[in-house]
Design a protein that fits this description.
4 helices
Length: 163
């Protein structure tokens, strides 16, 4: 599980780093490594929000992260403006497209993991049902054999079906 507070700190640290680096670079293309850290932190925070919302005890943390994500959205608008001013809006658009594609892939991965977990759980339940059914069957067969033996013992030559 992703620690929501660490995710929040990651976004804030990445934003601070980008702001600091953007003041010292001549070309926005130099921001690539720090932008990668920012988008990684944002992705981690988004996952943390989803997990925190599922856990009712962490709703306050989820709200904090949601607010940080809103600040990140505004920061991205500032970044977009920075790329526009540098005449690199096409680079910005590619960055956003790649981030969106990665988010879609992460969603697909999560769905596949959930489906695999559901399938595994179903297989385990089916195996358990088969084992229980086999136990009941063998217990029933054992009981029938035991009863047959007891009936034969009780008859011990008195029954007409014996010689």
């Amino acid at each position: 599980m992703i620690d929501p507070l660490t995710a929040l700190a990651g976004i804030q640290a990445a934003v601070a780093l980008i702001k600091k680096v953007s003041k010292t670079v001549d070309d926005v293309s130099s921001l690539g490594p720090v932008l990668g850290k920012y988008f990684d932190a944002k992705s981690t925070a988004t996952k943390a929000v989803v997990q925190a919302k599922k856990s009712k005890s962490s709703m306050g943390t989820a709200i904090q992260i949601e607010m940080a994500l809103d600040q990140a959205k505004r920061f991205e608008a500032e970044l977009q403006l920075l790329f526009m001013q540098a005449g690199k809006i096409d680079v910005w658009n590619k960055i956003k497209e790649r981030a969106a594609a990665m988010d879609v892939e992460a969603a697909h991965d999560a769905r596949r993991e959930k489906e695999a977990a559901t399938k595994h759980k179903k297989e385990v339940e089916e195996a358990l049902e088969i084992v229980l059914l086999a136990l009941v069957f063998f217990a029933l067969v054992g009981f029938v054999v035991y009863l047959s033996y007891e009936i034969l013992e009780q008859c011990a030559g008195k029954c007409s079906f014996q010689r």
